[in-house]
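Quick one, T. Sequence first:
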Amino acid sequence: MSIERRLTGLAYACLLILGIQGGWLGPFLPEISRVLKVSIEGAGLLVSLTAVGYFIALLTVGALSHRWKAQHFLIAAMILYTAGFCGLAFAPALPLMLCATVVVGLGNGAIDVAANAVIVDLNRERLAQALNYLHVLFGVGAFLGPIISGAALAHAIGYWWVFGLGAVVCAMVAVALAATPPVQVRVPVEAGGGIMPLLRHPIIWILAGVLFLYVGGEAGIGAWLFLYLRVAASLGPGVASMGVSIYWLGLIAGRITGGRLADRIAPREMTICAGMISAAALFGLIAAPMSYGFAAGCIFLIGFGYGPVFPNMVAIGAVRFPSQVGRMSSIIMSGGALGGVFVPWLMGHAIAIWTPRASMEVALAATALMALLSMAIRAK
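Structure tokens:
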């Protein structure tokens, strides 16, 4: 049991690092642009190529999940992170830094699939609860990432120090994972078939569709909420930044609550209710008078409703395909990755053509569709 607890703790640490790296790159982009003497648009390619690496890793891990244990993928992910963060810290030119972000993106995808697979295998009897608690760590990391980069910028600490320290921490986690004896797999992974047979199951497409809408809405709101609060609510930059932090705090609270209620409410029903909460809160943010207190409550509830959706979809898929968790996760998370590319772009397009309010209306439509699509999930 001590080995299982150790492996669980290391999986949690990996997802915490995943959340942190997702939150600390953006604030460093202006400094990277200045140091490397490139345009801010060029520096922004770092974010896009991270997503490319993530998508490639999702498909690769799914295809190889019957050959490697999830623990081995976590080790590989930490090695990729170590190499990628070193590249981000010491690359003398943008092309090399872009290559480093692809490597980091590969680590992102490996962690996202493997950490879920580890927790699923160690907690078959309480899937939804364990997965919600696992994904609390992502929310905590996403909340801490901008704080870390903000503190570094405030104290004139170069981004290379932050990324270099991140590489050291990831190397330590890789060593700890390698030193942890492998845990016996409770449900052996099926070797034959590959990903294609899974695509014949309608439930796979439904779960991927829910994650497409969820990840798209979550990422889009995280990206554009600051601008919406600045323009639609006429809030100052400090207050608008606090609004984004409240959003991530709501996500953390939603996942903690999802974990506590998982033994009382089925993942499908919890997801439907959560989607309705987020949709109602988005409607309130768009339609009601924009006092800061009311807006803060709506923002918290948006994140709160989003909180349990991702882990619940993985839990439902793990129950339906217990011997193919890695492949199943890679497919439905690929749907989420595509949503993370398309929906935020659509929200930004709505801002450019219409107004910031239109971007939140796009998010509302995606969230309402997510709740409706969740109703199509069947227990058997």
